[in-house]
Fold:
Amino acid sequence: MRAHSLIPAPIADLPWRMLLLVMFITGFGLLVLYSAAGGHLMPWALPQGARFGVFLVMAIAISRIRPERMKAFAFPMYAVVLFLLVLVEALGFVGKGAQRWLSLGFMNLQPSELMKPVIILAIARFYDLLPPGEIRRWNAIWPAALMLGVPWALILVQPDLGTATMLLAGGLTLMFLAGLPLRLFVGGAAILAVAGPVAFSFLHEYQQKRVLIFMDPESDPLGAGYHISQSKIAIGSGGIFGKGFLNGTQSHLDYLPEGHTDFIFATMAEEWGLLGGCLLIAAYALVIRWGIGVALEAKDRFSRLTAAGLITTVFLYVMINLMMVMGMAPVVGIPLPLVSYGGSAMLTVMLCLGGLMSIDRASRSDGRRR
Structure:
């Protein structure tokens, strides 16, 4: 009897190479959180580890759901989350100057995070229903644009520029992959470039400062540019091999703000150096490569678009955070998935991975039946 025959089918069917990479990324993050707390499991590493365990079980449970079920509930889920976003405007509580959360008593729910995977399902479902001959007509544009624009506007006024940017980027990417003409996106980019100065005037003052500091972080090194200046110092001081585990100075001496959340990559790079940074980025790249493979091997249009959109969401998390901490993008508050402390981004990423595992499982089972 072969050893793998003793393993239950629901466990044996899981993409273990991808899951081991995800566990490695999270485990590496727990080490960084442990160090950022001065060598203590509390207040970050232990809750983060427990949270990951719960979300991993949730992702595995989602992987048992057939894509047909996700397709059937795409629009209802979109309606529910959109209603929650409206509730945030009416009943949400304010934290750190933003109104983004609903208090459920036992936890604080951030509906904007749930909208990231749900908008992917809704737009994929719309283009799955659209006849192929309609893809280059106006009917292929305005419904998807409306589905994307309403939650984008609700999130932008919370205000949450980072999440709104991710939602817009993910939705537009999916519309492009669905087959909309390239000229629409080129024209839209040109209009955005012209309207940029006007849009800038509507941003909140702190958001305008983030953009200006991105252009010239040294103009206010002790004020609005402090975060990015200290992040660069931490990353650069790590060198190739880093200062060693528990030996960071920028984070331990509190020079680096948000060293356990948005700027955790800088905390890691100081202690683990370029080598640690490259190792972490390589692990992310392999997970993203797996997700692209799932999209390419999907058997129907809805599954292909959904898989492509979900892995794009994960990619945007990684790309925007790394560009932010290296001074290549404005600071917009996007955490590093599975590494930064906090449950909202981890929940979103694990929902995406659960959906991808569902599509991957369906593709492989359909292939075996053939």
Notes: The longest strand covers residues 98-103. Strands lie at 93-95, 98-103, 108-109. The radius of gyration is 21 Å. Confidence is low (pLDDT under 50) at residues 1-6.
